[in-house]
Amino acid sequence: MRAARVRATSPNGTPYAFPNNVAPSSAIEIHSDIPKPQISQPGELLIQVKASTVFRDNLEWNELYPPNHALLGNDFAGIVVAVHSSEQDFRIGDHVYGMAHANRGGTWAEYAIVTSSEASKKPANLSWEEAAALPGSALTADQALFVHAGLETPAQQQPAKRILITGASGGIGMYLVQFAVAAGHHVVGATSSTERNGAFLRSIGAHEVVEYGDFATLDNKFDLVVDSVGDPVLAECWGVVKDDGTLVSFDACSWGYIEEHERKGISKGKEGVRALYFIAEPSRVSMGRISEHVLKGTVKGRVLKTVALNDVREAYESVHSRGIGHGKIVVVP
To answer: Could you identify which of 34, 71, 112, 154 might form a hypothetical disulfide with 105, taking C-beta atoms 3.0 to 4.6 angstroms apart as the criterion?
Structure first.
């Protein structure tokens, strides 16, 4: 089986590790002799991977390094080709999509083991590529807003909140904007360039668009700020969140930001802010909400381009470039 893996050590023999010696993109290798995974316990599904995606921080997840040794790739869309004898929810031939847990991954491959809690039935109106482009980004957005920030879902009555989203035109930010607008809130999308991203953000529902350099000019502060880019933008977010508001971040490089910002005095005077950091986890509840959006036609997977597995290293490098477009780079094994 063909699959992508990260070389364990640098050319000089130093083991890669998180956070002090993260592997570079040159450590991504494609192997053609990887054993095809086998189901070993209840709840597992073997899928033929039809599509996966590239995350901007794929190599910055600590689960990739010792002692976990997770494999690359988490988003998936594919066909169930084997199930455990006790499986009740899925059967061979089902078309599924979802996100494999960070501590395992393995979807940059021809076949992968996922669990029934990670998989959902793929809506028929999504292509394989569109389906793969959704889970990781949309799950993170859904959980940031409705699980961690505590917003109520669109079906519930609630007063509208004023919400600022940084990195609003990015792979996760675009779903944060759409989900928050659909839930009835006033959404301001923050971006590095309104010239480049302003029209796109308004097209997906943002009520206002600002650049990061304009934060100091904002008169009204925000009930909720969701950051998807990290410092130095994250540090500026303390100045625009209400004293009793909520600040959420999930960027891999922002791990520990609450303690660091307190130590540096960045968050001084904002002791009443509920600041938190989280890592998205597979959730059929979240995927259910996402599938509802898809079936209604209010959200779909945005595919920037599709690449073959052999080109995944170059694809990973390209996601770090500004202005490449709006959507996910999809990997087809």
So the answer is: 71
Is residue 17 within 8 A of residue 66, CB to CB? The reply is yes
Cα 69 from chain centroid? 20
Alpha carbons 60 and 41: distance in angstroms, whole number: 29
pLDDT truncated to tens, each residue of the chain (333 aa)? 999 999 889 899 899 988 889 999 999 999 999 999 999 999 999 999 999 999 888 888 888 888 777 789 999 999 999 999 999 999 999 999 999 998 889 999 999 999 999 999 999 999 999 999 999 999 999 999 999 999 987 656 678 899 999 999 999 999 999 999 999 999 999 999 999 999 999 999 999 999 999 998 887 899 999 999 999 999 999 999 999 999 999 988 898 999 999 999 999 999 999 999 999 999 999 999 999 999 998 888 899 999 999 999 999 988 876 666 788 999 999
How far is residue 208's CA from residue 297's CA, in Å, rounded to a whole number? Answer: 23
Query: Distance between CA atoms of 118 and 287, rounded to whole angstroms?
Result: 9
Whether the model pTM is above 0.85: yes
Strand partners, 44: 115
The helix, strand and coil proportions of the chain, stated in percent and rounded to the nearest 5, come to 30, 30, 45
Taking only Cα atoms into account, the Rg of the chain, rounded to an integer number of angstroms, comes to 20
Which residues 6+ apart lie within 8 Å of 126 measured at CB? Answer: 77, 97, 134, 294, 300, 301
